[in-house]
Design brief:
Elements (H helix, E strand, L loop, with lengths): L5 E8 L1 E7 L7 E5 L15 H16 L3 H13 L55 H23 L15 E2 L9 H5 L5 E3 L5 E3 L9 H5 L5 E2 L5 H10 L12 E6 L3 H10 L8 E6 L7 H9 L4 E6 L13 H18 L7 E5 L8 H15 L8
Parallel strand pairs: 8-9, 8-10, 10-11
Antiparallel strand pairs: 1-2, 2-3, 4-7, 5-6
Helix pairs in contact: 1-2, 6-8
Bound molecules: iron/sulfur cluster (2 copies).
Length: 386
């Protein structure tokens, strides 16, 4: 007999009886056996840096919060995370924890499918069985790949250049800290742990860790984080430069913010394959949807643009974002924008986020055409002409 499901327990009572829950037919079944062979798996020798950090934060909150409810929930969370106490291995001095962020089974997370030994800490590589179960030959190959990447990283860092994916970029985010409100959004959202905080919560920038994704720029409500060649103002000016047809012209204007890593190459592939799409669309490439500053949406809609579509990488457990959570962060920011739009008597559906991978280039014309149809049904932006 063959059964597939979750083994709940094995009873040894003369004969062995295996209790299986959630079998393929949905029942709980028992299977009698003479011999049980247990599968073995590799358990990584790594620590979960983010949970260690959360343990310390929860403890701190449990001791210092003024709210008794926060003290209670923080104490409960600290209790849950207690098993991470003293598990530090790398002892990195990062605001986001002393070790690498890990996945479900404890292996370090990597934002790059092609270079899986890359970790979410620039210049730190998890090779061989440290990052995935594999045999000795694979581990040797993996180690070689990681060593080559490390050499490349050192060379590029010496020249002040970013490593993958914006390899060779020599710009850095500039923080105009005189106007910083210490809100900590940039330090919390930076996917590579580039920003630590001083005691007051002011960001401390470590340039060698930076991948130039621009997520800090998108996160900052004060708009004081900018690059020389990529800034909140620059994109706002691009939006301003688009001609917005009057409502009697019956041509909705759509602004599409597209991630340069997957969405834009997908658009180029679609174009190379002869695809055409809605002519009302104007496209602005962005480093990552996470670099989208809410002010761009306000700028576009207040100028009469009928809709803004954001196209970026897939998020969730199997995320494809080169900057880990860029499109997910943009999605969270949009949740907060919905209410503001309603207050302005604008339909929240005028702003839409779509997840797309490079190989889904054939979807692009449909995505843009469907959005144009939705806007057509909604009618022109009531702020047109003001
Ligand atoms: S550009 Fe990206 S990696 Fe660099 S500090 Fe900002 S969020 Fe962090
Ligand atoms: S997001 Fe802006 S205001 Fe907030 S801490 Fe960072 S730099 Fe300061």
């Amino acid at each position: 007999m063959m059964a597939r499901g979750d083994v709940e327990k094995i009873e040894a009572n003369g004969k062995l009886k295996i209790h299986v829950a959630n079998s393929m037919l949905g029942d709980n079944v028992q299977v009698e056996a003479d011999l049980v062979v247990l599968a073995v798996g590799m358990v990584p020798n790594s620590a979960d840096g983010e949970l260690i950090r959360e343990l310390h934060d929860s403890r701190h909150q449990a001791e210092t919060s003024e709210s008794s409810q926060v003290r209670e929930t923080s104490a409960a969370r600290a209790e849950e995370l207690l098993k991470h106490e003293g598990t530090e291995i790398l002892n990195l001095e990062y605001r986001q924890g002393p070790d690498l962020p890990t996945l479900k089974y404890g292996f370090p997370d990597s934002p790059f499918i092609c270079f899986p030994y890359e970790s979410r800490r620039t210049g730190v590589y998890a090779a061989g069985t440290v990052h995935a179960p594999m045999d000795a030959v694979q581990a040797a190959e993996d180690g070689l790949g990681a060593a080559m990447k490390a050499v490349q990283c050192i060379e590029m860092a010496k020249r002040g250049e970013a490593v993958h994916p914006r390899a060779g970029d020599t710009g850095y985010p500039d923080f105009f800290l005189q106007r910083c409100t210490q809100c900590k959004r940039c330090t919390e959202e930076c996917p590579f742990g580039t920003l630590n905080e001083d005691e007051k919560g002011t960001p401390e920038f470590f340039p060698l860790r930076c991948r130039r994704c621009g997520i800090c720029m998108g996160a900052c409500p004060e708009r004081i984080v900018n690059f020389q060649d990529y800034s909140v103002l620059m994109v706002a000016e691009m939006i301003k430069a688009f001609e917005v047809p009057e409502d009697y012209e019956e041509k909705p204007r759509i602004v599409a913010l597209m991630c340069e890593n997957d969405a834009l190459p997908a658009l180029e592939t679609a174009a190379a394959n002869g695809a055409t799409w809605n002519p009302w669309t104007r496209i602005i490439p962005v480093r990552c949807l996470g670099s989208m500053n809410i002010v761009w949406l306000a700028e576009a809609l207040s100028r009469g643009v009928d809709g803004v579509i954001l196209i970026g990488c897939k998020f969730g457990d199997d995320y494809q974002c080169h900057y880990v959570r860029g499109s997910e962060l943009a999605n969270t920011r949009l949740d907060n924008v919905g209410e503001t739009l309603e207050r302005l008597a604008l339909e929240p559906e005028r702003v839409k986020l779509v997840e797309l991978s490079h190989d889904e280039f054939e979807r692009i014309p449909t995505i843009l055409d469907e959005f144009a149809e939705e806007l057509d049904e909604m009618g022109p932006n009531p702020l047109k002409g003001f």
